[in-house]
Write a structure and sequence with these properties.
Elements: H1 2-5, H2 11-16, E1 19-23, E2 35-40, H3 46-61, E3 65-68, H4 72-84, E4 89-92, H5 98-108, H6 122-125, H7 131-136, E5 183-186, H8 188-193, H9 207-214, E6 217-220, H10 223-232, E7 235-241, H11 247-259, H12 269-294, H13 296-302, E8 306-307, H14 309-320, H15 324-339, H16 362-376, H17 383-420, H18 429-435, E9 447-453, E10 462-468, H19 474-477, H20 484-487, E11 493-498, E12 517-521, E13 528-533, E14 536-537, E15 540-544, H21 553-580, E16 586-591, H22 594-604, E17 614-618, E18 627-629, E19 643-647, H23 648-651, E20 667-672, H24 683-703, H25 708-728, H26 738-759, E21 766-770, H27 785-794, H28 800-813, E22 817-819
Parallel strand pairs: 2-11, 2-12, 3-5, 3-6, 4-5, 6-11, 13-21, 13-22, 16-19, 16-20, 17-18, 17-19, 20-21
Antiparallel strand pairs: 1-12, 7-10, 8-9, 9-10, 14-15
Helix pairs in contact: 11-12, 12-17, 14-15, 14-17, 21-22, 24-25, 26-27, 27-28
Length: 822
């Protein structure tokens, strides 16, 4: 490999020499078959291992290889590295965000003259130029583009033609080289969402399917993160109703445009059902907004929450009875109500809630609700609570009808589309219909959630719909076998690599496929020191200052600013320390969000000594010296600043932030200002816990010898119960069970360790400081988060694989110091 590059530096020999692939089961040969999970500590040489083995597979085994990278910048880097080794490599970047990727590339690699363009081969990988579109000047007013890959018309011919210029296309030129390429390099997003154009592949396969059919080996980097992305791909949020541009309103408008006066289709039963369901959906949405407009309490209760019908059922049943048995009977009756909610059920009978949609009088509505409550044996609400409960029940009724109609429309839209010549896009449906026959459906059954969002100055808000449709991680763990039952053909060997995908008892990051191999490095291990800084409240010296979990925003912000004020001397000391030992290293201040970055920036601005010496990470280029765009973070060594303030998740993966010589990590010290914690009612957090429990549910089913139907009911019941319990129960550290704390400890530890890994590159040592009182808080005498981190480290301290992944952290967490500020 070094001979091919020909720079005389023995670069690859030096990279490979320290690496060793160890077997956990004492196997002597590594076999490329099925799914192989390989562990490798942070900076252990996983990228070197992938590149070396890709070269070996192509050159000695004539294999075709795929690489999944974390982001587009890494795709471009990998293409460059492999191309230098003489391999035929194509980058497969989805067309949706190419302009943004191009802007980020140009921001990181400024081009000052036309003569410099030829030195940037990556520009050709990011082009979003369609040749025909450019010739025709066919660009929408808003700058968006329509790609006419298979919709070209020739003279008076009615049938569309496929584009003949694929080999010259800015977007698809590389896709046209797939069959001749040795290596395909892409991202998880492109794998699930991008299709091969019809001009290249008559089957128009998803990239995932094409990789299954045409590749021999696929290497997946950061496999635990890819598992999360695959899960979230089938858990999406879309604008549903409340705006003329949203889904329901567009579908209703399309119905009127297509079917009004067009009685040729009057005998089509499916379209008749479609029209009735869509009319009913529109009427239910109208009724829902009428109730929201009337009730201030209802509007306030919806703010910043994800609403699920099952939780509404629980909440209402609790308010209508104090008896647990009665509550469950009411809840079951309400679940049955949901199952029967359709356009034919809205008959105004005395004891049926469906008829609310047909009533306009508040008196009549309350009478109907009271009759229903009485029939169920519940208690009529007291006068001071009645308005709130009646409003919640009405909201439940309208939402139940909306959900049933939405599910029907989502199910039959692909068929109806044929008759309507529709241009209304329903996100996910196109993608899902390809995967769904081969995937495990959502563990709770297909579930919808609703988020109500308002804007300043507008009284009524808009609803977004959240769809939970399938167990996405199955596409990763079963990639080599997914289609085998359908066509008898096995897929490629899939190699899963990550430094944090072996995480026992983590339901979010641990990968079900047990790793049998791990990468060891003979380099000297990094030394990590960890300290908790006791920062006391200036007004109450006995109390440490918290940030995470502080409900009042103003108080939270002021606490964060106090912490900055108290640790400036510590930051100064850290910079002095690295200078004293002749290492040009810098300081990282870690927060949870870009809003937090701004607050910390305002605090630093108060200190003249730091003027011009700090930068605030931004998502985009703000063209302001104090703000530093994330796309350039790997070049921070060239910036004349000592401090970077950044959100944890923005840089915890995918970035090698090295010193200006490329010898090791640039940042030597990190101050974690805010304890990481999951977002309240985060559906992704809940769903990954369900998916992490699925192997346990399968084991229980096997032990009980259940039939298929019994097993499905068991999984649904357990999953729905678990989901509702998580949704109802606040995730306060003090009230969690030991098992729940362990799951949460892993959830917060992994991104923390990933970020610490940025400081250990090149075998460098690092100092870490935890500043938020919540790290060490022991509510009700329960162990603190830092103590739980120590616990999960000690539980696996004798496992060689675990030690290779988390060694520096595991060795230092037990000796963590409590230090004061000075």
């Amino acid at each position: 490999m070094d001979n091919i590059i020909g720079n005389g530096k023995m670069e690859w020999q030096n990279k490979v020499a320290p690496l060793k692939l160890e077997s956990r089961s004492k196997q002597s040969n590594f076999v490329y078959e099925g799914v192989q999970h390989i562990g490798g500590g942070l900076a252990a040489g996983k990228s070197t291992f992938r590149t070396m083995n890709t070269y070996w597979l192509v050159k000695t085994k004539k294999a075709k290889v795929g690489l999944l990278e974390g982001n587009v910048a890494q795709v471009l880097e990998r293409v460059s590295d492999l191309s230098k080794l003489g391999l035929k490599v194509v980058s497969l970047v989805g067309r949706g965000n190419r302009r943004l990727h191009l802007e980020n590339y140009l921001l990181s690699n400024p081009i000052n003259s036309l003569n410099e363009i030829t030195a940037h081969e990556s520009l050709s990988h990011l082009s979003d130029i369609c040749t025909i579109q450019a010739l025709a000047g066919d660009l929408n007013n808003d700058g968006s583009k329509h790609y006419p890959c298979k919709s070209l018309k020739q003279k008076d011919e009615r049938s569309p033609k496929k584009c003949p210029l694929t080999s010259y296309c800015g977007v698809y030129k590389e896709w046209g080289q797939l069959m001749d390429a040795d290596v395909w390099v892409t991202t998880p997003g492109a794998v699930l969402n991008s299709r091969l154009p019809a001009s290249i592949d008559p089957l128009e396969r998803l990239l995932y399917e094409a990789m299954y059919d045409l590749l021999d080996v696929i290497f997946v980097d950061e496999a635990d993160q890819v598992q999360k992305q695959f899960d979230e791909a089938f858990l999406e949020e879309h604008s549903a109703f409340g705006n003329p541009k949203h889904l329901v309103e567009k579908l209703y408008g399309q119905l009127n445009d297509t079917l009004q006066g067009n009685y040729e289709l009057a005998d089509n039963d499916l379209l008749t059902q479609w029209r009735k369901n869509l009319d009913h959906l529109h009427e239910s949405v109208w009724s829902l907004y009428a109730e929201i407009k009337k009730s201030t309490n209802l509007r306030e209760s919806l703010m910043n929450k994800v609403i699920y019908l099952n939780y509404l059922i629980f909440e209402i049943s609790q308010k209508l009875s104090d008896d647990e048995k009665q509550q469950e009977e009411i809840a079951e009756e309400m679940r049955e109500f949901v199952r029967n909610s359709n356009y034919s059920s809205i008959v105004n009978l005395d004891d049926r809630l469906h008829g609310l949609i047909n009533l306009s009088s508040q008196r009549d509505k309350r009478l109907l609700i009271n009759n229903w409550i009485t029939k169920l044996g519940g208690s009529i609400p007291e006068k001071n609570k009645a308005a709130q409960i009646y409003s919640k029940i009405e909201f439940f009724v309208y939402l139940a009808h909306i959900e049933r109609a939405m599910k029907w429309i989502l199910q039959f839209y692909p068929v109806v589309q044929h008759y309507l010549n529709s241009n209304v896009e329903i996100p996910l449906l196109t993608q899902i219909k390809d995967f769904r026959p081969f995937m495990k459906e959502a563990m709770t059954g297909v579930m919808l959630g609703y988020r109500y969002e308002t804007k300043d100055g507008i009284e009524t808000g808009e609803f977004k719909i959240i769809q939970y449709l399938a167990v996405g991680r199955q596409l990763l763990n079963e990639w080599p076998y997914l289609y085998e039952a359908a066509d008898g053909k096995k897929g490629p060997t899939v190699i899963l690599l990550s430094g944090t995908s072996y995480a026992p008892k983590s339901l979010h990051y641990h990968i079900e496929v047990e790793p049998q191999w791990f990468i060891q490095s003979s380099r000297k291990p990094s030394r990590l020191t960890q300290d908790f800084i006791e920062i006391r409240d200036p007004e109450n010296g006995e109390k440490l200052i918290p940030v995470s979990g502080v409900q009042q925003q103003g108080r939270r912000h002021s606490n964060l600013q106090v912490i900055i004020k108290e640790i400036v001397s510590k930051i100064r000391a850290e910079l002095h320390y690295w200078k004293e030992i002749e290492e040009e290293r810098k300081v990282l201040l870690v927060v949870n969000s870009y809003d937090d970055v701004e607050i910390v920036g305002a605090a630093l601005e108060q200190f003249p000594e730091w003027k011009g010496r700090y930068r605030l990470l931004s998502q985009k280029d703000k063209k302001n010296e104090i703000w530093f765009p994330r796309s350039r973070v790997e070049q921070f060594a060239l910036e004349n600043a000592d401090i970077l303030v950044a959100p944890m998740l923005a840089i915890s993966r995918g970035y090698n932030i090295m010193d200006k010589y490329g010898n090791g990590a640039l940042f030597g010290s990190a101050f974690f200002l805010i304890r990481p914690y999951p977002v309240p009612n985060d559906l992704s957090y809940f769903v990954q816990i369900l998916h992490g429990n699925l192997p346990l549910y399968f084991e229980e089913i096997a032990n009980n010898n259940l039939t298929y139907a019994e097993a499905m009911r068991k999984i649904r019941k357990k999953s729905r119960g678990k989901f509702e319990d998580m949704y109802r129960k606040p995730d306060y550290w003090s009230i969690l069970t030991n098992q729940e704390r362990t799951v949460l400890a892993w959830f917060t530890f992994i991104p923390t360790w990933q970020l610490i890994g940025r400081l250990l590159r090149g075998g460098k040592d690092a100092h870490v400081f935890y500043c938020d009182a919540k790290y060490m808080e022991k509510p009700n005498g329960k162990p603190s988060l830092l103590e739980y981190w120590e616990k999960i480290m000690s539980e696996s301290e004798n496992d060689p694989l675990f030690a290779s992944l988390y060694g520096p952290f595991s060795r230092s967490i037990g000796t963590i110091n409590k230090v004061g500020v000075f």
